[in-house]
Amino acid sequence: MLDYKKLFDLSGKGAVVIGAGSGIGRASAEAIGSLGAQVICADYDVAGAQAAAEEIAAAGGKAEAYRIDAADGVEIEALAQHALKTLGKIDIAVSTPALNIRKLIVDYTEEEYDRVMNLNMKGAFNFFRSFGRPMMKQGFGSIVACSSMRAVTIEPGLGVYAASKAGIAQLVKAFAAEMGPYGVRVNAVMPSIIETRLTAPLKERAEIFKTYAGHTVLNRWGQPSEVGSAVAFLASDAASYISGSSLSVDGGWTAIDGPPTGLTSTRPSE
User: Fold this and answer.
1) Strand 62-67 relative to strand 38-43, pairing
2) C-alpha distances in angstroms, 129 versus 28, 58, 116, 175?
3) What's the maximum distance between 2 C-alpha atoms anywhere in the chain?
4) How many DSSP H helices and E strands does the chain contain?
5) Distance of alpha carbon 121 from alpha carbon 256, whole angstroms
6) Contact yes or no for 101/160 (Cβ under 8 A)
7) pLDDT tens-digit readout, 153-181
8) pTM, entire model
9) What is the DSSP letter of 269?
10) Is 161 a known active-site residue?
11) What is the side-by-side strand order in the sheet with 62-67?
12) What is the CB neighbour count within 10 angstroms for residue 248?
């Protein structure tokens, strides 16, 4: 029988996680590191990246911190070259950073639009190029980007952010098609409402926090670890036949049309 546990084992693999300083990125780095991979924890917040690396090391893993501006293509390329030199190969590359400026489209400035798109969309483009090239030469690798449920569902004020996340989902499909012949898989996770430092202000607004939770079928917000686990799965050999996908990690938000309210549960009689 196939040893299924080994499919999730990342021992001996080299990984890079951009955005590892906090939230989903940190959880992804910790999940990948806990499964045995050596991880380069990259973030603009180098103190956060260092904390993530130390957490992995404290649990018996191996990791280092690296400072990067994820909106800068030159710095992303430098990170890829550093990873090759340090790890010898790149088995796993993950990128999670994103920016959202919540405004109606008519109120957006061009500068704000450029800031969102340069990090979210152009950043993903540069990430794919810089890490896809060495993986093509290797003939193996797993690339994981971070999209969002906003790629497929929207609310006013999130148009530009949603467009960037939908763009990432389409880039994932295209890049998976281009990289498949070289043995490289490309996927994304598509989270919904996750409790992170960036969403912390919403928790202080109890009614909004509760309303958002009610849009999921589980009636709660998600934790970064629940997305990090999904990232680790996509990075592993357990997902060896998955490529070009955006995996929903959304508590069922996109499975239903509106919040699951006003329903009563009918249990079968014994």
Assistant:
1) parallel
2) 21, 33, 19, 9
3) 65
4) 10, 7
5) 27
6) yes
7) 999 999 999 999 999 999 999 999 999 99
8) 0.94
9) P
10) yes
11) 62-67, 38-43, 14-18, 92-95, 141-146, 184-191, 246-249
12) 19
Helices (H), 59-158: 73-87, 110-117, 123-138
pLDDT of 182-237, one tens digit each?
A: 999 999 999 999 998 777 777 778 888 899 999 999 999 999 999 999 999 999 99
Strand, coil or helix: 242: coil
Closest of 191, 189, 187, 198 to residue 240, by C-alpha: 187
Encoding tokens for residue 152? 């497929």
Which pair of tokens denotes residue 8? 């999730």
What percentage of the chain exceeds 70 in pLDDT? 96
Joined together, the tokens standing for residue 19 give 């955005």
21, 41 contact by CB (below 8 A)? yes
Distance set, CA 246 to CA 165, 175, 211 (Å): 11, 13, 25
- Alpha-carbon distance of 159 to 119, in angstroms, equals 16
What percentage of the chain carries pLDDT values higher than 90?
Answer: 89
Which H or E element spans position 185?
strand 184-191
Listed range (30-34, 65-69, 152-156) with the worst mean pLDDT? 152-156
Give the residue carrying structure tokens 């098609």: 177
Residue with tokens 């530009």: 160
Q: Catalytic one among 44, 66, 108, 161?
A: 161
Residue carrying structure tokens 């130390």 = 54
